[in-house]
Design brief:
The complex is a heterodimer of chains A (250) and B (670).
Chain A (H helix, E strand, L loop, with lengths): L2 E7 L8 E7 L8 H14 L22 E2 L2 E2 L21 E5 L8 E3 L2 E2 L2 H8 L22 H11 L6 H5 L6 H13 L1 H4 L2 H14 L10 H5 L7 H16 L3
Parallel strand pairs in A: 1-5
Antiparallel strand pairs in A: 1-2, 3-4, 3-5, 6-7
Chain B lengths: L14 H8 L5 H4 L3 E5 L3 H13 L2 E5 L17 E2 L11 H11 L6 H21 L24 E2 L5 H18 L3 E4 L2 E9 L2 E9 L5 E5 L2 E4 L20 H8 L4 E2 L4 E7 L22 E5 L2 H8 L13 E2 L1 H5 L9 H16 L8 E4 L1 H14 L7 H27 L8 E10 L2 E2 L12 E3 L17 H21 L13 H20 L5 H16 L5 H21 L11 H25 L27 H4 L1 E6 L8 E6 L14
Parallel strand pairs in B: 1-2, 1-9, 2-5, 9-17
Antiparallel strand pairs in B: 3-4, 6-7, 7-8, 10-16, 10-18, 11-15, 12-13, 12-14, 14-15, 18-19
Helix pairs in contact in B: 3-6, 3-13, 4-5, 5-13, 11-12, 15-16, 15-17, 16-17
The chains are: A alpha+beta (250), B alpha+beta (670).
Chain lengths: 250, 670
C-alpha cells in the first residue's frame, strides 16, 4: 500500500504545531498502524530527520499508553480497539490519513503526538482506592461473599485502561466516563462502601479542577471506548454524587 | 565474594516464620527518616512501593511509562495461583511448593519457593480487600480454574485480564500513598545507573524522559523491579519499552546476574507475518485443551498450501501429522510449554511450516467443534442432525469458551478460526533468569534489592502458568517490607544521603558521557536495525534449541554487532528533549552486552533443563529417545555471573541447589 500521511508535528509544549505531509510506500496491509508509524520513523531516521514521537508500549490493547486521533476518530476506525490493534487493512491504497494527538485542555501536548495525561493519575489519587494497608493478617477473601452480578459489573467498570479516548472524543472534553468507571467499581463492591461518599465528591472535585468539561450525555465516549465502558456508569456516578452531596456532613 | 544465600536454619515450613521473628525492625518514628527508591511499578515494584510507604518510609518510585498503571504486568491474562484449597481438592502450601519446584525442573531455590507458596493465600486476601474484582460463582464466593501442569484448581482470575486487575489494585494502593505525600512518583523517568557510596547502594541517576534532564536521587536502599529481558530477542510478547537497563546497570556495578539463559518460549502465539512486525501476541494456552496441533505429512502439500493452491481443511486426515499426539501419546497436545514449543520448531525446521515465513503450525478446532456440536445436538434432542447443524451448534459452544481469543486472532490475522485452522508459533514470553538475590531478595550489592521477574529465584528453568503474578506480589507485598527493614535497622542514624558527593558526581558524568556518545556517533543505521540483527542471532542460535557450536558463533556475532553499533548507529535529535530514539539506543546497547552473557551461560550449561535445551544433552535409546536430559550430578546449581569488564569474560560463581524436601525426578510426557 502507498499512503499519504498528514502527521501533527510539534517540537514541545510551547511550540506551535502543524500538520506535515509524508509519503509512505510499500506498507503491508497486515502491519499494525503503529508498525506503519515505525516504518515512517525508520525512513525519517535514515533521511537524517527527526522521527515523530508517539506513545505506545504493550501493543496488545491493554496498557492504555497508545492514543492518536486518526482521521477524526480516537484510536481510528473500528470499535473496541486501541490504536495498536488497528491494522492497515482497514485503509485503502492511496488514501490520505490524518494523524493527530488526543486534544483536550487537560491533556497538553508534550511533543508531536505525545500528550500529558497525568490529570487522570491525580483524579485517581483523590480517592480511587480502598483505604486498606498491606497486612499479613487480612480477613479471609471468602468471608465477604459478593453477588456475582455485582462482581461482574464492577469488573466491567474496572476494565478501563485510562487511555483518554473518552476525553478526546467528547465535544466538551469531559472525563466523566473515566471517573465514573472507577467510582462505579468501588460503589458496586462492599469494600468500597465505607468511603463511597468522600470518594465520589473528591474525585469529581479533582476532575473539575483539572479543567475537564461537563457531560451533556452525547454518548460519543461510550462509542469510542476501546473497552466498551457503559454510559450506565455515568448514571451511577451521578446518583452517587447527588446522594453524597445531599447527605455529606462536610 | 562468596555466594551466601542466607537461607534461615530450621525445617522448611518454619524458616520464614522464624526469620521474621528474629530479623531487625525499624521503629515507626525512625522510618520517617529513611528513604527508599523503587524502580519499576509493575506488580512487584508497585506493591513494594505502596507497602513500604504505608509502613512510614519515604518512597521514591520511578517508571518510564506516563503512569505507573501501564507497567507490563498489566498484560498478564490467565490468573494467579494461591494455595487456598477453596475447591477442597487437597491443595496445600506443600503441594503448590512441590508443583512449582518440579515445574521449574529442579533449578529453583527450595526455601524461596516454599515461602512463595506460604504467602500466596495472603495475596488473594489482600487483593480482595483492595477491591480487585476477581471472578465469583453464584454463591458470591471466589471462583477458580485449573492451569497447565497441575492436578488441582488453584488459579484465581478476572476473565482474561487478571494482570490488569491486580496491577490496578497495587496502583490504587500507590495512589493513596502518593496523595499522602509518602510516595514521590516520577513518571516518564528512566534509571540510568545506581550510585554506590561506601560499597552500598545509596541512590540512582535518572533521566527525565520529557526534558532530558539528568537527575540525582539518593536513598538508603534501592529496589529494582523492572521486569524481564525477553526483548533481547527483538520480537517477544513483552511491551515495546521492556528492557534490561536497570538490571544491567546494577550488574555492572557488582550485582551478579543469575541463569541468564533461562527463557520461556510460549507455544501459542500468533506467528510473525513479515519484516514489519514489531512484537508478538500471546494467546492463552487454554486453547490447547481443545485445539489439535498439526502440519501436513508431505512437503508437496506444504508447498501447495503456501502458494494458496490448497486449503488446510481440504487436506485428508491421513495426510496430516498430529505430531504432538504422535510423539507424546500420554499428554498429546497438553504437554508443557517447553516441549510443545520445541516440537513445533522441529517440524518447521524440517520444512513443514504452513505460512509464507515457514514458521507456523496449525491449531485446529474442527474436531472439537464437531464433538461439542454432537453433544449439544443430544442435549437439544435433535434426531439425525445434519453435519451443518452439528457444526453450527459446535461453533457456538467453542465461542462460549474461547470467543475473545478467536476474536483477537481474527483482528490480527484477518482469518476466521472457526472456518479455517488457526496458525500458531512459539514466541519469547518470560525470562526466569535475572539478578541473583539471597533469601532476603538482596543482590550482591548491599542495600540493592531485586524483585519480581527481575530476580531469578522462584521459577527455576521453567515457569508454570499463573505463577508470575503470584511471585511479583509476594515479593512486593509480603517479602520486601520485612527484609528491607532488617537491613535499614542499621541506618537509623545515617541521616539523609547527600547527592553532592564525589560518587554521585562520577556516576552522573558516566551517564552523561554515554548519552553524548550515542548522539555523536552520527552513523548510518537506526537503533532498530541493530536490535533486529541481535534478535535474529538470539533466535537462531540461542532460541529453543542450542548447541555449543551455535552458541560460540552467537557470542562472536553479538560482539561484532555491538562493535558496529558503537561505530555506526544514528541517534537523531538532542539530549535535552524528549527523544525516543536516544532511549532505545541506551536499551539496545545494554541488550547487546546481555545477549553475549546469555549465550555464554547457555554454552556453559551443558545439560537440558526446562526452557534451556542443549542438543548435546538428550536421552539416547529407550522410550525417552531424543528428549531433554537433565544432568543433576553436574548442573544442580545456580550460575551467578560477575561482571569483569566484558560479557565474554564474566566470572562464574555457583550456588549449589540442595533439595531436602523433594526427590529429583525426570519429567516424562510419553
Amino acid at each position: 500500500m502507498n499512503l499519504t500521511l498528514k502527521v501533527w508535528r510539534q517540537k514541545d509544549g510551547k511550540a506551535k504545531g502543524e500538520l506535515v505531509t509524508y509519503q509512505i510506500k510499500d506498507v503491508s496491509p497486515d502491519s499494525s498502524f503503529l508498525e506503519m508509524l515505525d516504518m515512517l520513523n525508520e525512513n525519517l531516521v535514515n533521511e537524517g530527520k527527526d522521527p515523530a514521537a508517539f506513545d505506545h508500549d504493550c501493543r496488545e490493547g491493554i496498557c492504555g499508553m497508545c492514543s492518536l486521533y486518526i482521521n477524526g476518530e480516537a484510536h481510528g476506525p473500528g470499535r473496541l480497539i486501541t490504536t495498536c490493534q488497528l491494522h492497515m487493512r482497514s485503509f485503502k491504497d492511496g488514501e490520505t490519513i490524518y494523524i493527530e494527538p488526543f486534544r483536550a485542555a487537560a491533556f497538553p501536548v508534550i511533543k508531536d503526538l505525545v500528550v500529558d495525561r497525568s490529570a487522570f493519575d491525580r483524579i485517581q489519587q483523590a480517592g480511587g482506592y480502598v483505604s486498606v494497608n498491606t497486612s499479613g493478617n487480612t480477613q479471609d477473601a471468602n468471608s465477604l461473599p459478593i453477588p456475582k452480578d455485582d462482581a461482574d459489573k464492577a469488573f466491567d467498570a474496572a476494565t478501563c485502561i485510562g487511555c483518554g479516548a473518552c476525553v478526546a472524543t467528547c465535544k466538551n472534553s469531559s472525563a466523566m466516563l473515566f471517573v465514573a468507571a472507577k467510582v462505579s467499581q468501588f460503589a458496586l463492591l462492599p469494600q468500597g462502601k465505607v468511603e463511597a461518599k468522600r470518594r465520589v465528591l473528591n474525585m469529581v472535585k479533582q476532575m473539575d479542577e483539572e479543567g475537564f468539561g461537563n457531560c451533556t450525555n452525547t454518548g460519543a465516549c461510550e462509542v469510542e471506548c476501546p473497552k466498551g465502558i457503559s454510559l450506565e456508569n455515568i448514571a451511577r456516578m451521578n446518583r452517587e454524587y447527588f446522594s453524597a452531596a445531599i447527605t455529606s456532613e462536610e | 565474594m562468596s555466594l551466601d544465600a542466607k537461607i534461615p536454619e530450621g525445617p522448611l515450613k518454619d524458616k520464614w516464620t522464624n526469620h521474621k521473628n528474629h530479623i531487625n525492625v525499624v521503629n515507626p518514628a525512625n522510618k520517617r527518616h529513611i528513604d527508599i527508591i523503587v524502580v519499576g511499578t509493575g506488580l512487584a515494584g508497585g506493591a513494594a512501593a505502596a507497602s513500604l510507604a504505608e509502613m512510614g518510609y519515604n518512597v521514591k518510585a520511578f517508571c518510564y511509562q506516563d503512569s505507573p498503571r501501564r507497567a507490563h504486568s498489566i498484560a498478564a491474562q490467565g490468573g494467579i495461583n494461591a494455595a487456598k484449597n477453596y475447591q477442597n481438592d487437597g491443595d496445600s502450601t506443600y503441594r503448590l511448593f512441590y508443583d512449582t519446584v518440579k515445574g521449574g525442573d529442579y533449578r529453583s531455590r527450595e526455601a524461596n519457593v516454599y515461602r512463595l507458596a506460604e504467602v500466596s493465600a495472603n495475596i488473594i486476601d489482600q487483593c480482595v480487600a483492595q477491591g480487585v474484582p476477581f471472578a465469583r460463582d453464584y454463591g458470591g464466593l471466589l471462583d477458580n480454574r485449573s492451569f497447565g501442569g497441575v492436578l488441582v484448581s488453584r488459579t484465581f482470575y478476572a476473565k482474561g485480564q487478571t494482570g490488569q486487575q491486580l496491577l490496578l489494585g497495587a496502583y490504587s494502593a500507590m495512589n493513596r500513598q502518593i496523595a499522602q505525600g509518602k510516595i514521590a512518583m516520577y513518571n516518564r523517568h528512566e534509571m540510568l545507573d545506581v550510585v554506590l557510596v561506601g560499597g552500598k547502594a545509596r541512590g540512582i541517576i535518572a533521566r527525565d524522559l520529557v526534558t532530558g534532564e539528568i537527575e540525582r536521587h539518593s536513598a538508603h536502599a534501592v529496589i529494582v523491579a523492572t521486569g524481564g529481558y525477553g526483548n533481547v530477542f527483538f520480537l517477544s510478547t513483552n511491551a515495546m519499552g521492556s528492557n534490561v537497563t536497570a538490571s544491567w546497570k546494577i550488574h555492572k556495578k557488582g550485582a551478579y546476574f543469575a541463569n541468564p539463559c533461562y527463557t520461556q518460549i510460549h507455544p501459542t502465539c500468533i506467528p510473525r507475518s513479515g519484516d514489519h512486525q514489531s512484537k508478538l501476541t500471546l494467546m492463552s494456552e487454554s486453547l490447547r485443551n481443545d485445539g489439535r496441533i498439526w502440519v501436513p505429512k508431505k512437503l508437496e502439500d506444504v508447498k501447495a498450501i503456501r502458494e494458496g493452491k490448497l486449503k488446510p481443511k481440504e487436506l485428508k486426515e491421513e495426510d496430516r501429522d498430529y505430531y504432538l499426539e504422535r510423539r507424546y501419546p500420554a499428554f498429546g497436545n497438553l504437554v508443557p510449554r517447553d516441549v510443545a514449543s520445541r516440537a513445533a520448531k522441529e517440524r518447521c525446521d524440517a520444512g513443514f511450516g504452513v505460512n509464507a515465513t515457514g514458521e507456523a503450525v496449525y491449531l485446529d478446532f474442527a474436531s472439537a467443534i464437531m464433538r461439542y456440536g454432537t453433544t449439544e445436538a443430544h442435549i437439544q434432542g435433535l434426531h439425525n442432525p445434519t453435519q451443518d447443524q452439528i457444526r453450527e451448534l459446535g461453533e457456538k459452544a467453542v465461542e462460549n469458551k474461547y470467543g475473545n481469543l478467536f476474536q483477537m486472532y481474527e483482528k490480527i490475522v484477518d482469518q476466521n478460526p472457526y472456518k479455517t485452522p488457526m496458525m500458531i508459533y512459539p514466541a519469547v514470553h518470560y525470562t526466569m533468569g535475572g539478578i541473583w538475590v539471597d533469601y532476603n531478595l538482596m543482590t550482591t550489592i548491599p542495600g540493592c534489592y531485586a524483585a519480581g521477574e527481575a530476580n531469578f529465584s522462584d521459577h527455576g528453568a521453567n515457569r508454570l502458568g499463573a505463577s508470575a503474578l503470584m511471585q511479583g506480589l509476594a515479593d512486593g507485598y509480603f517479602v520486601l517490607p520485612y527484609t528491607v527493614g532488617d537491613y535499614l535497622a542499621n541506618d537509623i542514624r545515617t541521616g539523609k544521603i547527600p547527592t553532592n558527593s564525589p560518587e554521585f558526581d562520577a556516576a552522573e558524568k558516566e551517564v552523561k558521557d554515554r548519552l553524548e556518545r550515542f548522539i555523536n556517533i552520527k552513523g548510518t543505521k537506526s537503533v532498530d536495525h541493530f536490535h533486529k540483527e541481535l534478535g535474529k542471532v538470539m533466535w537462531d542460535n540461542v532460541g529453543m534449541a542450542r548447541n555449543a557450536e551455535g552458541l560460540k558463533e552467537a557470542m562472536a556475532k553479538i560482539k561484532q554487532i555491538r562493535e558496529e553499533f558503537w561505530k555506526d548507529v544514528r541517534v537523531p535529535g538532542g539530549l535535552n528533549e524528549m527523544n525516543p530514539e536516544l532511549e532505545k539506543a541506551g536499551r539496545v546497547a545494554d541488550f547487546l552486552e546481555l545477549g553475549e552473557l546469555f549465550a555464554k551461560d547457555a554454552l556453559d550449561r551443558n545439560e537440558s533443563c526446562g526452557g534451556h535445551f542443549r542438543e548435546e544433552s538428550v536421552e539416547i535409546g529407550g522410550e525417552q529417545e531424543g528428549e531433554a536430559k537433565r544432568d543433576d550430578a553436574n548442573f544442580a546449581f545456580v550460575s551467578a555471573w560477575e561482571w569483569t569488564g566484558n560479557p565474554s569474560e564474566a566470572k562464574l560463581h555457583k550456588e549449589n541447589l540442595v533439595f531436602h524436601d523433594i526427590e529429583l525426578k525426570q519429567r516424562s510426557y510419553k
